[in-house]
Prior knowledge:
This protein has 230 residues and is α+β, with helices and mostly antiparallel strands. 29% of the residues lie in helices and 36% in strands.
Amino acid sequence: MVAEPDRNLHSAPAYSVLADDVEHELEVKRSRFITYLGRVEQEDEAREFIELIRQEHRTARHHCSAFVLGASRQLQRSNDDGEPSGTAGAPMLEALTGFVGPGRAVADVSDVIAVVVRYFGGVLLGTGGLVRAYADSVTEALATARFITRQQTRKYTVTAPLDAAGRWENELRGTDVAVLGTDYDTAGVRFTLGIPDAPDEVAALEAGIAALSQGTASLELLDTGWVDLR
């Protein structure tokens, strides 16, 4: 049986990302605030997302935006798009960076862009009203979103005998080992496995494969990178 590692040791870097795009509308004193959330990983993707929304809502007065990119959320940008300075982009960005996703102890959402389209309703909201409206628009949209974990992961392959492959896969899936792929051939079943990139996780997988195979199988490291855990 694959051993369970101590989750308190050497945890691998991970953060929350959107599972799907989101559209949410909020009305404040007849002004419509339509929020779009999207998954982006590069700044040029964020700019393209903004332009797509702008083209879709050409008659809207404002298309304000904020985005956060990177595992450590190192790239952050916002834009008021004609609203009074600091009343739109900044509160939107604060809403993104301060949101704590489901099952998370801290705010860690990244690789996300928010665009809020405003259709003016004829009533001035004032500086404070605009800040609240743009922040609430993004916060409410985030509350409706579904998130997954993006984790720094090591990928391995290991080959199981055909007659034991089903048992191996059941054992592996019963732990936090991600079975990313299976390839069948005459030699057996070649599993592609993913685990968090942490020493205790590696040690647990090595011990588990040794136990499953009675010491006859060995792991082959493919690469290390970021993987969405669904």
